[in-house]
């Protein structure tokens, strides 16, 4: 297969409610839609999910756009892809920049599926047609507001609640939720905001019957995470630390965690994500699917991937209306009885809503294999 054309739509979607984490507030989501075309005119869709600020991890969307244009698209145009995994090898001479690679890698998977007239799900041997889902709740100013938000999500049917924490906003809000809802699947996500000096706090959190505590320490640390895991009953889950299967091996060897939040874009795409799933399966690590405030394109990818039988823990894959008033695909993801349907059809199984895309598009760029055109 030859890639002959790439279109890049630079979009900005306003969030329904601001999302606060230990590192900052998100009010609008920047994202790029990438459309790859092959020599037969098939199209594959990818989403670039990185943020404008380098606060979650080091990647930024502006640096990713440059890398995609200057490094990744030229490699794609030169390649003759025999099988879908070839795109992973093609990008190996570029270090890091996982979300940039993932935007194109996942689009190539969609393109192969379109060519072969099969669903993306069918490549993973998956059977599930609906998935149980959870929701990630941002930091709220008052405990009352937080409880009201959690109650509302539970009423809507979300099967697992993740609460963002930061120093000074942790044991009090979490205890309040646990007291009000003794039986829900509850967890916390610190986004790297603590150190081992906070051990006493984690021992208190350990009493709340949390499903797990996500990313308590620095995203380059494996050793202190292991020291903490040794002293807790509660599972530690790593998010920011995990970029490759080698990171999962390190975490496993040291005992740094018992669960992995797998985000396809954070590990550079589907090929690496499959390696991680495989490692987790053979080593009894709990693996579940995380999110990046994706639009309907990235969400369709997450649903296709999370339909594999190994994903039983409800992921951060919420209904479209939890994130955006208006999604950019036809038939945005809806939740029914705490579950979201895996889009059916070939490839990602979605249709783009061009009117919605045009409303939020800031810039469009076309690259073709013989020359680049700016529009
Ligand atoms: O740490 O998991 C995280 C969103 C953006 C960046 C990082 C994280 C999150 C979430 C929400 O927790 C995931 C989602 O619902 O898309
Ligand atoms: Mg996280």
Automatic annotation (TrEMBL):
- Which residue range or ranges hold the Mandelate racemase/muconate lactonizing enzyme C-terminal domain? 143-235
Enzyme Commission code:
4.2.1.113
Name the reaction it catalyses: (1R,6R)-6-hydroxy-2-succinyl-cyclohexa-2,4-diene-1-carboxylate = 2-succinylbenzoate + H2O
MF annotations from Gene Ontology:
O-succinylbenzoate synthase activity
Q: Which InterPro entries match?
A: Enolase-like_C_sf, Enolase-like_N, Enolase_C-like, Mandelate_racemase_C, Mandelate_racemase_N_dom, MenC, OSBS/NAAAR
Q: Which is a Pfam family this sequence falls into? A: MR_MLE_N
| Xref: SMART domains | MR_MLE
Cite the binding residues for Mg(2+).
189, 214, 239
* Enzyme active site: 164 (proton donor), 263 (proton acceptor)
SUPFAM superfamilies the record matches: Enolase C-terminal domain-like, Enolase N-terminal domain-like
Q: Record keywords: Cell cycle included?
A: no
Keyword annotations from UniProtKB, A to Z:
Lyase, Magnesium, Menaquinone biosynthesis, Metal-binding
Name what cofactor the protein needs: a divalent metal cation
Pathway in which the depicted protein is active: Quinol/quinone metabolism; 1,4-dihydroxy-2-naphthoate biosynthesis; 1,4-dihydroxy-2-naphthoate from chorismate: step 4/7; Quinol/quinone metabolism; menaquinone biosynthesis
Q: According to the lineage, what is the superkingdom?
A: Bacteria
Function (record text)? Converts 2-succinyl-6-hydroxy-2,4-cyclohexadiene-1-carboxylate (SHCHC) to 2-succinylbenzoate (OSB).
Q: Which NCBIfam families match?
A: menC_lowGC_arch
Family named by the database record: Belongs to the mandelate racemase/muconate lactonizing enzyme family. MenC type 2 subfamily.
> What is the designated name of this protein?
o-succinylbenzoate synthase
Organism of provenance: Candidatus Enterococcus courvalinii
């Amino acid at each position: 297969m030859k890639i002959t054309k790439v279109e890049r739509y630079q979009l900005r979607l306003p969030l329904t409610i601001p999302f606060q984490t230990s590192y900052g507030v998100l009010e609008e989501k920047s994202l790029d839609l990438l459309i790859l075309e092959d020599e037969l005119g098939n199209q594959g869709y990818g989403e670039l999910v990185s943020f404008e600020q380098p606060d979650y991890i080091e990647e930024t969307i502006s640096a990713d756009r440059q890398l995609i244009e200057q490094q990744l698209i030229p490699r794609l145009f030169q390649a003759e892809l025999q099988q879908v995994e070839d795109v992973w090898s093609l990008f190996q001479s570029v270090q890091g920049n996982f979300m940039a690679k993932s935007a194109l890698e996942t689009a190539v998977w969609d393109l192969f599926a379109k060519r072969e007239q099969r669903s993306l799900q069918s490549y993973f041997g998956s059977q599930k047609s609906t998935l149980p889902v959870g929701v990630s709740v941002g930091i709220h100013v008052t405990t009352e507001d937080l409880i009201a938000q959690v109650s509302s999500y539970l009423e809507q049917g979300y099967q697992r609640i993740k609460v963002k924490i930061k120093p000074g906003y942790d044991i009090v809000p979490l205890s309040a939720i646990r007291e009000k809802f003794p039986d829900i699947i509850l967890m916390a996500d610190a986004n790297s905001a603590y150190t081992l000096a906070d051990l006493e706090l984690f021992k208190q959190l350990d009493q709340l019957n949390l499903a797990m505590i996500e990313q308590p320490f620095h995203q380059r640390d494996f050793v202190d995470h292991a020291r903490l895991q040794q002293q807790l009953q509660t599972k530690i889950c790593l998010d920011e630390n995990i970029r490759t299967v080698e990171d999962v091996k390190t975490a496993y060897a040291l005992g740094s965690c018992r669960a992995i939040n797998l985000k396809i874009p954070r590990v550079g795409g589907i090929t690496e994500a499959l390696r991680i799933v495989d490692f987790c399966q053979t080593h009894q690590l709990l693996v579940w699917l995380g999110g990046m405030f994706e639009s309907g394109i990235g969400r369709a990818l997450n649903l296709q991937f999370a339909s594999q039988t190994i994903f039983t823990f409800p992921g951060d894959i919420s209904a479209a209306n939890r994130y955006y008033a208006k999604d950019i695909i036809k038939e945005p993801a809806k939740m029914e009885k705490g579950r979201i349907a895996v889009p059916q059809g070939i490839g990602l199984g979605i249709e783009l809503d061009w009117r919605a895309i045009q409303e939020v598009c800031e810039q469009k760029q076309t690259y073709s294999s013989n020359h680049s055109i700016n529009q």
